[in-house]
Amino acid sequence: MDKVRISKTLSFWLRHKPEAAGLSLSSDGWADIDAVLAALASEVPGCGWEELVMVVETSDKQRFELSGDAARIRARQGHSVDVDLDWPQTKPPERLYHGTVARFLDAILAEGLKPMARHHVHLSGDLETANKVAARRGQPVILVVEAAELSAAGRPFLLTSNGVWLVDHVPPEHLSVLD
């Protein structure tokens, strides 16, 4: 079983292009599990219920979740399609972290962190996770986000069920590069 291929396929469909698999997402991002399994069967031969559940349960980033009755599946964050995931607005800790690479640093320090094609900027509560995220694209650079300051200034933070912090923008004055 190719867990990486299944995960990437699910990410593409459930975050960005559900129509590519003939799927439709509810307003809060859920897709019918039977429709997803049917689409996966033609895209990733040999992928069935057990393989899908294994990807959902063993993903290091916990990107996906099943509904309580296991009839639906959704991506937890990272969408470019319109969905309302209703994550709770939560007071953040003093600092959060964002992993990036050096080639983006000048633009980030000038304009801040922006969601780009996604709905939110994704932040980590710990250095290890931020480092893993950044290392996927090259030599990691870790940014420190003064989250409590930003929250006190009126910027809302959301916390997903897998511990990813979401915010719509981080202005440069609330960022520093970790030494």
Structural summary, described in words:
By secondary structure, this protein is of the alpha+beta class. The chain has two domains: 3-75, Arc Repressor Mutant, subunit A, CATH 1.10.10; 96-177, ADP-ribosylation fold (Alpha-Beta Barrel). Helices cover 32% and strands 18% of the residues. It is built from six helices and nine strands, in the order αβααβββαβαβαβββ. The strands form three sheets. Strands 1-3-2 form a three-stranded antiparallel sheet. The longest helix has 14 residues, at 3-16. It is globular and about 50 Å long.
Give structural attributes.
single chain; 179 residues; alpha+beta; ADP-ribosylation fold; 2 domains; 6 helices; 9 strands
Summarize this entry quickly.
This protein is α+β, with helices and mostly antiparallel strands. 32% of the residues lie in helices and 18% in strands.
